[in-house]
Each structure stands twice: as structure tokens, then as C-alpha cells.
UniProtKB/TrEMBL annotation, chain B:
Top-level taxonomy: Bacteria, Pseudomonadati, Candidatus Hydrogenedentota, Candidatus Abyssobacteria
Origin species: Candidatus Abyssobacteria bacterium SURF_17
All residue ranges annotated as the Aldehyde ferredoxin oxidoreductase N-terminal domain in the record: 1-207
Name the record gives this protein: Aldehyde ferredoxin oxidoreductase
Gene Ontology terms, MF aspect: 4 iron, 4 sulfur cluster binding; electron transfer activity; metal ion binding; oxidoreductase activity, acting on the aldehyde or oxo group of donors, iron-sulfur protein as acceptor
Pfam families: AFOR_C, AFOR_N
Amino acid sequence: MTSTVTVFVKLYATLTKYAGVIIMEEPMQVDVPEGSTLSDLYTRLRIPDDEVKTAFVNSAMQPPEYELRDGDHVGIFPPVGGGAC
Amino acid sequence: MNKILRVDMTAQTVTEEAVGGQYAGLGGRGLTSKIVNAEVPPLCHPLGRENKLVMAPGLLSGTAAPCSGRLSVGGKSPLTGGIKEANAGGTAAQRLGRLGIAAIVVEGEPPKGTLWKLVVTKSGAELLPASEVKGANNYKLVEKLTKTYGDKVSYISIGSAGERLMSAASVAVTDLENRPTRHAGRGGLGAVMGSKGLKAIVLDDKGAAAVPVSDQEAFKQAVKKFSMALKEHAVTGKGLPTYGTNILTNIINEAGGFPTRNFSEGKFEDAAKVSGEMQREIILKRGGVATHPCSRGCVIQCSRIYMDKNKKYLTKGPEYETVWANGPNCGINDLDVIARLDRLYDDIGLDTIEMGATLAVLMESGYIAFGDGAGAIKIIREEVGKATPLGRVLGNGCAVTGQVFGVKRVPVVKRQALPAYDPRAIKGIGVTFATSPMGADHTAGYSITANILNVGGTVSPLKTEGQMELSRNLQIATAAIDSTGLCLFVAFAVLDIPEAFEAIYEMINAQYGLNLGPNDVTALGKTVLKAELEFNAQAGFTAKEDRLPMFFETEKLPPHNTVFDVSHEELDATLRF
């Protein structure tokens, strides 16, 4: 029997459409099989790989091959940039 | 652009001179910094007759080059005591370009108590008394001047903060809707303008000829190439137009580098409430404009128009830095409060970053509580706006306020407040904050690109390796871009798309009949920085000014629990080239 891990996911900017919302104020809880990577999570959420630019897990930037752990907080971004006074 | 206007406030005369000698071929920041370094005694009082206020459009301003509407404003800063260049969008740079003016240099000191306006048309320029607008803030000022000069001109102006010589005073520039929403904010150049008794500049380019372009066809091709790159890149073509600069709130917060409650934490619990995504929804719901240019010929269009709850115009969409400084940095989670503060700052003529950082320091002192939005608005309107003794303290910025209120955590470098990135969690930007001749300034070398956004490569934000080189290269490139009149946001495309970089020097070559290559761009950036560093050294700056406040090296920042640990040796080597 495969066990699962539970992660908490927030999608940002143009990616929120894959959660069916305009703005995600609270993270959504997602159960994935143990051993799943960030890349697997994108597939599970039906986010095309080329739309993801950056992902943070518990505030640290992580590559698509990062293996998810129970309780991870994940933030997923498309290409963004800005900042001005 | 072939002439410099010299405005002598002592004699109230305006003279024209040809651009030549050491100023030939320069524009924007390159020209303001060269003039300040050559003509202003580094040890002078920034508000004295020896200082000069220099305004210069970029090399490409006034042409069809996309996003070429930045106006550089320079002088010796009353805030930092060093050289300063602050730039703004809006409509002024394009008009100066069309008028053939490479720079306006305001010099001397007017008779005490007098106030002036400079009116520039294609047939010349004259100084006129402006006592009728004494004490007016920017919105009322523009409204009054518009009755005389119309809305087909540009206004560069100061509000009451500039007249009162506050070190956080900005220089305002009108936007395409003839509103004073675009500011050269940093370093108190509005106070320098106030010290010259210059309330406003009116730029009327009616009847001016098109900017001469040496090779029209080559220019057209380069413009096309540049536009395509800006539209193709995901940040300049999609992210910024859709969400504006405030799209950064969520990602900087996720990265744990979002300074919260006066740099005491790296994540804000209510970031979503002040995010670019939320701002877009509010703007659209209230009938505002969510994708909008701040100057003619902008293809990025990150500006927006923000309505109040009654769907009436309140202000331009507050930018990311403004949102951060006056929101999370003050424990405030309400975009309407931030927008009202933004309107007050634009009106009174104040730097939104400096003032937000100042409010946070005031909150840390306990004078008002973190999160007290109504209190913050009241203090800016009633104290700073009316120049009470408390208002004068605050209007002179974060360092002064920290000193007066006995606060130990005062986030400044060279007495200028840090912008919206905590250098303990994003170390590359810390190198820029520490070493830029401008004082803490994110735009001087925007390491957020490689540290967080994965633009122009990737350098881990939490490690010390590679940060010095990243900051150095960006500071050099930025000094060059700031000389062209191009908005710095073109850099997102330039860093990733080789054709965008090529297009910049191809546009300049086609306009001026030159044959510049990539190495010339780097050389230009270095020349500009060297002039700035030379001025600062002669003004008394040493390596100890190139340091972050010590609390960044000793207080750990949650959630990463890291400190800023790029070595002092590396900081000292950053701009040694």
C-alpha cells in the first residue's frame, strides 16, 4: 500500500486559474503519493510545466525534482517581476 | 538633443549653451552625474547656492523608442549628503527630448522668500514669479497651472514638502492624464528644487520638430526588434501589464524576504490582502484601469489607475515599493489605506519609500501602533502636510526620525531608507543597498532578478557566493540603462533575450549616427559610476558608509533565521573595477 503525504499549496498570479479561483488567500490541501516531486504536483494540478517559473517550499526555492514531504508549504509562480517606487 | 538650459536663480536668467566637451554624447543619469560631479563642490550644503539641480531626459527620450520616457533628476542629496540621481516616468522626458534639451541646470539662490516657475517652449525659456501658487500641493498646483498653460504640456513640480526643504521631498512629474503621479522620489531632490525657489517647470513642446534620427530605417528596425522582445518576455509582456509592479508582494513574501513591521520578520501574514492580484481585482471592480502607460510610447504598461470605494479617482495604482513600505512594513493590511497614503505623498511631494520606512520606525518607537492605518494617514496629513515640528522630523526621513525617537532598528544606508527586500534573506540586493553611491536603492542594481525571479540566471538568495559579482554587473548595466531614458523594467527582457540588448545600442547608433557595441555600454556604465563614486569620496564618504546597519549582521530574520554575512572585503571590492 502506497502511503500519502499532505502538502499545502498556493498558486499565484496567472496560475490561480488551475485552482478555479482568481485569488488564493488560503492554501489548498493536496494529498500526493509518497515520493512525489514538485513536478508530479504540477501534473496533478494540471499546470503545464512551461507555465511554472519558480516554486518555493517552506520559503526556500526548489527545483521541479524536489521530493515533497508531509506538511510542506508550497508556493508556485509563473514568471513575475516588478518593483518600483 | 543639443542644448543645456542654465537657469540662474540668483539673477533669474536663463541661458542656452551647446552640449559639448565632457558632456557630449551623454544623457539621463550619465549627464546629471557628470554635471554634478564636475560643477558642484562635494562639500557644499545641499540646500545652499553652490548645489545644482539637474534634470535630463535620456539619450532616446523623445523618439519612438519604446519605454524611453524616464527623466533623471540629479544633485547633491540633502538626505544622503552624497550624489543623487532619481528618475521618474511621466511625460516630461519625452517633451524635453522633442524640445532638443539635453539638460536643465538650476543654479544659484533666489532672493529670500521668492518663488518661481520656469516656462519652456520651442522658442525659449523664461522664469516667471510663482507667488500665486506658494504653499500649494502638487494636485492643486497642476490644476492652477493648467488653467494658464493647458493640459497638453508637462509639469515638473514640488509640493509643500519641497518648499519646506524636507529631506524626503520628491520632484513630481505629470502623467498622461495630467496628474502629478510620477515622482523622482529618492534622496530629497524636491528640497533642492525648493531651495532654488523653483516651484514648477512647464514644458510645452507645441510646434517642436521631431527628434532628428540619423538613420531612419535602421532606427525603425531596432525599435521593432526591441518592442518584440518586450512583448515576448513573460515579465514585460504579461506579468507587469496584468498585475503591475505589486505582483512582487507574493513572491517576495513566499521567499521569506518581505520586511514586515520594520524589518523584524520576513513574512507578512496578510500579504494576500495587499498583493498585486488583490489590487487588480479592486481596480477592476471599481472601474479603474489595470493596464496603463505612465508615459507615451510605453509598451509594458505596468501603471494603473486606482479608484476609491465610491468609484472616484483616488491615485495611480500604488507601486510595489509603496505598498510594502506603507503596508506590511507598518503592519497595515488594507490597500485603501495604502492608496490614501500614496495620494497624500504624491500631493505633498514625498518619497513613498522613505515615508513608509519612517512611519515604521515611528511605530517601533510606540508613538503609534503597528497596523494603525488611520493614525498613519492622520500623521502624514496633519503633521507632515502642515509641517508641525513632528511633521518636520518625519519629513526628514527614517534616520532623523529614528534618532529623534531613540529607535535602534533604523533600516538605512547612507541615511536613505532600505526598499522592500530584506538583505538577510536576499543577499544580492544587500550588496547593492550597501555599496550603491545612491544609498539604499533597489533600482541601482536589482539583484532580485537572479536571486528570486530567475531572470538573467540564478544565484541562490541565501548564500553569499556570487552576490558581489551579481550586484556589480547589475550596477554597471543599470548606470548605462539609466542614461538612455529607458525604463529599468526593460532589463527583464534585456537580461534574457540577447536581441533586446542589441536593440538598445542599435537604436542609439541609428539615432546619433554612432557605431557603439556591447562593450561601449559597459564602459558607459562604469564611467557614470566612477563619477558618482568620485563625488562621494570627495564629500567624505569612506568604506564605512558602504555597510548595512549592524542589526542586519546580528539579528536573525525569521523564517530563514539568517543574517547578512557577505564580507566587508567583498562589499569593498564590489565597485572596484
